[in-house]
Each structure stands twice: as structure tokens, then as C-alpha cells.
């Protein structure tokens, strides 16, 4: 297994958290609480990166600018999420 770490933006909602990865458009998820959102974010990131590999897409390197992004919604915060990417032969 390989590991990749990206910054994820967690936005509080009425029902929990919405999560997105600015470096990976389309990689989004939700969670009922912070623990659930972190677990779902790791799963979403793993699946998204695996899908990109399968499609032959270039996987971008994680950017440091996500950690300094001030354009998020009030109450939002960035968490580093690590994905386990399975190696398939």
C-alpha cells in the first residue's frame, strides 16, 4: 500500500460536516460528526485517487496553499487526511 496526504476542508453543517479536497476537484464527502467525517474523508480520498490511477489521470501533488487558504466558510478548518492506496498488479 502507498500513502498520500492531502489537506481537506471541513465545513460545519446543520447535520454534521461537509468535506472537500481543494487539490482534487470532485472529491467530496460528509459525516455526521467529526470522527465520522474524518473516516469518510479518508475513504473518499483513497477511492478518488485509485479511480484517477485507473483512468490514467495525473495525480497532483498535495499543495501547501490548502493549509493557508483563508477563503473557506466561517467555522471551516483544514485537516490533513492520509489515504491508503492499494497496489494492484
Overall description:
The protein is α+β, with helices and mostly antiparallel strands and 89 residues long. The chain has a single domain, classed as Double Stranded RNA Binding Domain (2-Layer Sandwich). 25% of the residues lie in helices and 34% in strands. The chain has a 4-stranded antiparallel beta sheet, covered by helices on one side. A hairpin with a 2-residue loop joins strand 1 (2-13) and strand 2 (16-20). It is globular. The N and C termini lie close together (12 Å). The relative contact order is 0.31.
Fold blueprint:
Elements: E1 2-13, E2 16-20, E3 28-31, H1 34-55, E4 77-85
Antiparallel strand pairs: 1-2, 1-4, 2-3
